[in-house]
UniProtKB/TrEMBL annotation:
Biological role stated in the UniProt entry: Required for the export of heme to the periplasm for the biogenesis of c-type cytochromes.
Protein name: Heme exporter protein B
Main location (coarse class): membrane
Family the UniProt entry places it in: Belongs to the CcmB/CycW/HelB family.
Subcellular location: Cell inner membrane
InterPro entries membership: Cyt_c_biogenesis_CcmB, Cyt_c_CcmB_bac
Gene label: ccmB
Pfam families listed in its UniProt record: CcmB
Topological relation to the membrane, as annotated: Multi-pass membrane protein
NCBIfam families xrefs: ccmB (TIGR01190)
Transmembrane segments: 25-43, 50-69, 101-123, 130-156, 162-184, 191-219
UniProt KW keywords: Cell inner membrane, Cell membrane, Cytochrome c-type biogenesis, Membrane, Transmembrane, Transmembrane helix, Transport
Organism of derivation: Spongiibacter thalassae
Length: 225
């Protein structure tokens, strides 16, 4: 099989597995919806205050929701031996890892982006910021998937690596959080937001180029231990 055929096969297998289990895509989505709807109850019904805090709230909760499904990214493949076979195969690891990260984003990051406009309305966000929110989440959640994959690869051999995974990836998430929420805030304030989105795009390109290589190296270290 060619590299493209293997890429498609892994992508389809992971998507089918995620859709069958349900929890991999439903739990982050429910967490995102529930936590965002709780903020108006805790902060109060003041529309101006909610609108002021909405970009940060949506981005922080989306970041935490995205991280929920990260620990299981390579866990099942490690448990059944598939991961070891991938490492031993003559295929380059880059497209194999890229397929798994793409499947993870399609089942965890993309649903969050699609739900964000509804939650933005609940949080009284001005409509001028909603398109930028969706675009920034589309780019930013993909970056979070790449970064999270590095942490998942480093902790895949640990039985309870969830806490360690959080400690590894959260500091790396901070630039994405800053640029993403700043772009939305700039759009709401009527300030130019394209430079901030461009920085997110640059981080995305950097993640696509380097993160799968780092993940492949981390998987070899974890499996060899």
């Amino acid at each position: 099989m060619g590299v493209s055929a293997v890429f498609v096969a892994i992508l389809r297998r992971d998507l089918r597995s995620a859709l069958r289990s349900g929890s991999e895509w439903a739990n982050p989505l429910l967490f995102f919806a529930i936590v965002c709807t709780l903020f108006p109850l805790g902060i109060g019904p003041d529309a101006r205050q909610l609108a002021l805090l909405a970009p940060g709230i949506l981005w922080v909760v989306a970041l935490l929701a995205s991280m929920m499904a990260t620990d299981s990214l390579f866990r099942s493949d490690y448990d059944d031996g598939t991961l070891e076979q991938m490492l031993l195969s003559p295929m380059p690891m880059y497209p194999l890892v890229l397929a798994k990260i793409l499947a993870h984003w399609l089942t965890s990051g993309l649903p969050l982006c699609l739900m964000s406009p509804l939650l933005a309305v609940i949080l009284q966000m001005p409509m001028s910021g909603v398109p930028v929110l969706v675009v920034s989440l589309l780019i930013g959640s993909a970056i979070l998937s790449f970064i999270g994959a590095i942490g998942a690869a480093l902790t895949v051999g640990l039985r309870k690596g969830g806490l360690l995974l959080s400690l590894i990836v959260l500091p790396l998430y901070i630039p994405v959080l800053i640029f993403g929420s700043a772009a939305v805030k700039s759009a709401i304030d009527g300030v130019v937001y394209l430079p901030t989105l461009a920085l997110l795009g640059a981080l995305f390109m950097l993640a696509v180029a380097l993160a799968p290589l780092a993940v492949a190296g981390a998987l070899r270290i974890s499996v060899d231990q």
